[in-house]
Amino acid sequence: MTDPVFVPLAEFGARPQESVQLYRPGARTAYPADVTARLDADAAVLVARYPEARSALLPLLHLVQAEDGYITPAGIEFCARTLGLTAADVVSVATFYSMYRRGPTGEYLVGVCTTTLCAVLGGDAILDALCAHLGVQPGGTTEDGTVTVERIECNAACDYAPVVMVNWEYFDDQTVASARALVDALRTGTPPNPTRGAPLCGFRETSRLLAGFDDDRPGAVSASGVGGEPTLAGLRAAREAES
Fold first, then answer.
1. Which residues contact 215 (CB under 8 A, 6 or more apart)?
2. pLDDT tens digits, one per residue of 80-113
3. What is the pTM of this model?
4. Long-range contact pairs involving 25-33 (C-beta distance under 8 Å, separation at least 24)
5. 219 φψ region: left (φ > 0), alpha (ψ -120 to 50), beta (else)
6. Most buried by CB count within 10 Å: which residue of 60, 154, 218, 232?
């Protein structure tokens, strides 16, 4: 028999850089009547798309995140009231998915992939360089509130590694120098176009789009990208195997 392995309890739970507190000083605890009326109208559109109201929880969380910039107590209570859930039900979902923010977020959420391939090709170095350049820790926001930098998991773009995402749009084949230039452009109000995908918009606007509302910016819907050669080679091999 092998000896039992004991893991200290302190090793479980959130990473040190992760914010886990949803109820924080200064966060909204209730919406004024005009905001509630506007959100009620938007929520009605989203809920009507599902056979059961509670199925609309993910879109509604994006909706309230678009309102506040992160998930606040007011947003939690709004979702709970709208869907007939408890606040605990809503919190359990909001803290499970990483796309729901637990604290104030900058106009641009810059995510650096540090999963295996991106890390090997420079993702860790890019994250460290950006944090040092901006004077923040991973998960932190610049003093001007423009940029939040975080570590993200694989975004299925390994053939373009290392990848940086800004408000979930791709910036491929990054280097330390190009990533620094990218965040500098964001902070000066001149955001560059992503390598592929739609033009950048602010984090709150992005959250509203993720809730499921139409993107009416000219050219946004038609913007698209093509997979890299390794991706396309795998697709061709899969199709050949099927034939």
1. 198, 209, 221
2. 999 999 999 999 999 999 899 988 999 999 999 9
3. 0.83
4. 27/68, 27/72, 27/73, 27/74, 28/68, 28/72, 28/73, 28/74, 28/75, 29/72, 29/73, 29/74, 29/77, 30/74, 30/77, 31/67, 31/74, 31/78
5. left
6. 60
Kindly report, residue by residue over 101-110, the tens digit of the pLDDT.
988 999 999 9
The dihedrals phi and psi of 186, each to the nearest 5 degrees, come to: -60, -40
- Model confidence pLDDT, tens digit, residues 120-172: 999 999 999 999 999 999 999 999 999 999 999 888 888 899 999 999 999 99
Token digits of residue 191: 């955001």
Which residue's entry shows tokens 């926001």?
141
For the beta sheet containing 147-152, the strands, ordered from the edge strand earlier in sequence to the opposite edge, are: 147-152, 108-113, 164-166, 169-171
- Spatial CA neighbour of 133 closest among 170, 177, 189, 174: 177
Tell how far CA 166 is from the center of its chain. Answer: 9
